[in-house]
Amino acid sequence: FSCAAPARAVSDPAIGKDGAPLAGSDASSGAGAAVDLPSSLATMSIAGSDASSAAGGAMNLPHIMPARSLEERFSVLRSIAEECIEEDELLQLLQNSPNPICYDGFEPSGRICILPRFVGNHLGVVKAININKMVSCGCKVKILVADWFAMLNKKLGEDLDKIQNVGRYMIEVWKALGVNVDAVEFLWSSEEIFKRPNEYWPLVMDIAQKRSLNRIVRCCQIMGRSEKDDLTAAQFLYPYAVDICQLGMDQRKVNMLAREYAELSGKSKPIILSHHMLPGLKEGQQKMSKSDPSSAIFMEDDEAQVNLKIKKSFCPMKVIEGNPCLEYVQHIIFPWFGRFEVARKEDNGGNKIYEGMEELLHDYGEGDLHPADVKPALARAINKILQPVRDHFKGSTEAKVLLKTVKVTLIILTSVVIRKMF
Q1: What's the structural domain count of the chain?
Q2: Which transformation does this protein catalyse, written as a reaction (predicted)?
Q3: 3 belongs to a structural domain
Q4: E strand spans, 4-114
Q5: In 221-350, where does DSSP find H-type helix?
Q6: CB contact at 8 A, 116 and 126
Q7: What CATH number is attached to the domain comprising 321?
Q8: How far apart are CA 356 and CA 364, in angstroms?
Q9: 369 and 250, same domain (yes or no)
Q10: Angle made by CA atoms 149, 153, 154, in degrees to the nearest 5
Q11: Do 261 and 351 belong together in one domain?
């Protein structure tokens, strides 16, 4: 059942020298149980799941050293989020649990952007980094592939087979990015809910009885829906079983309702780690939009497509606020590479390597770093990140067939939608 509401802001710690204090991801995580996860959950087997074995050679996902001390574990997990509710609860959880269960999830319903969100399949680069961060802290990561809920949410023609193909495709992308899938369990909601219906449905009824319909309607953003949308009854049934919940800032209502329900029911409240929401590439876009492909970078975009999208992106000179290119550098490039390399002619200041955002923002604000320097450097870095994904889907016959199947499905469904419009 979907549940949550606004939260107080907490200042963000630095993440060492990578200069990305707000590196965010969209994942739900846990280890104390607001709503208890099953103690034994089936694992989806993934052939060749070793992060280093994916087609395309060595993965370029940054190696994250295991965090051993309590302070290190807290710092690494806290660095995932722009906002934490509550920090003292997170610290206490880590003190009491060396291997907390971290719950994440995604709805398999379309193309994958480089940015992570549970809603809309922005299952991408930052999420990959954060999953490995959680693993480095000793967390047991369980990822729900929300196929059943994608069907309830009227995605991909409500065809469960098509939805599951997209789910398998997304897992292939994760493998190619270098996610440590050996330390991750992939769980399909279509299987998991029906394994324990005697626990799931009474919980749904209990939440329904303890909260008003208006309160629940306000939480429908978790499905990528608006309160004003004409929703079916089924669309109010959505999974929420976490100890640490890590979603985007736009999901605060769902997160906070979960805490309210847990407190009312005498259960452990989930710790909320809300990641920063990155904008679209165009001016004034608060979020990437899959409906506007030019505003979003997809995991299967080729080098030329990435270059063109970044070239046309909004990047006003000397303007830092609301500049998507600078946000991508901060939240994607620095966490991934630990630096940002700018190549330019000697007349324009020569090549420069930035070790942190502070210096980069200073130079950009002063005009010493030009948009014409930032954009090519950003495009090169993103292409370097995406190259193993491209190589994987070219080198693996199974992955290649899966990608083709997903593309054909999306083309057919798009044509159906267009025909209905005329």
Answers
A1: 2
A2: tRNA(Tyr) + L-tyrosine + ATP = L-tyrosyl-tRNA(Tyr) + AMP + diphosphate + H(+)
A3: no
A4: 83-85, 101-106
A5: 252-265, 303-311, 324-328, 334-337
A6: yes
A7: 1.10.240.10
A8: 13
A9: no
A10: 120
A11: no
125 three-state secondary structure: helix
Long-range contacts of 405-408 (CB under 8 A, 24+ apart): 405/165, 405/169, 406/165, 406/166, 406/169
H-only helix segments in 27-146? 70-78, 87-96, 125-136
340: β partners: 354
Task: Tell me the pLDDT of the chain (422 aa) as tens digits.
Answer: 333 322 323 233 333 333 333 333 333 333 333 333 222 222 222 222 333 333 333 344 555 667 679 999 999 999 988 899 889 999 999 999 888 888 777 888 776 766 544 333 334 787 788 888 888 888 888 888 889 888 888 888 889 999 999 999 988 888 898 888 888 889 898 998 888 888 888 887 887 777 666 666 655 544 444 444 554 444 444 444 567 777 777 777 777 877 887 888 888 888 888 878 788 899 887 666 556 778 888 888 899 999 999 999 999 999 999 999 999 999 899 999 999 999 999 988 999 999 999 999 999 999 999 999 999 999 999 999 999 999 999 999 999 999 899 888 888 877 765 666 55
d(CA 264, CA 212): 14
Among 67, 53, 220, which residue's Cα sits nearest to residue 153? 220
Q: Is the dihedral of CA 396, 397, 401, 402 positive or negative?
A: negative
pTM comes to 0.74
For residues 58 and 169, state if they share a domain: yes
Q: Which candidate, 249, 260, 221, 257, places its Cα nearest to that of 107? A: 221
Q: Which residues contact 74 (CB under 8 A, 6 or more apart)?
A: 90, 91, 94
- Please work out, in degrees rounded to the nearest 5, the angle formed at the alpha carbon of residue 138 by the alpha carbons of 133 and 140: 90
CA 53/CA 75 separation, integer angstroms: 30
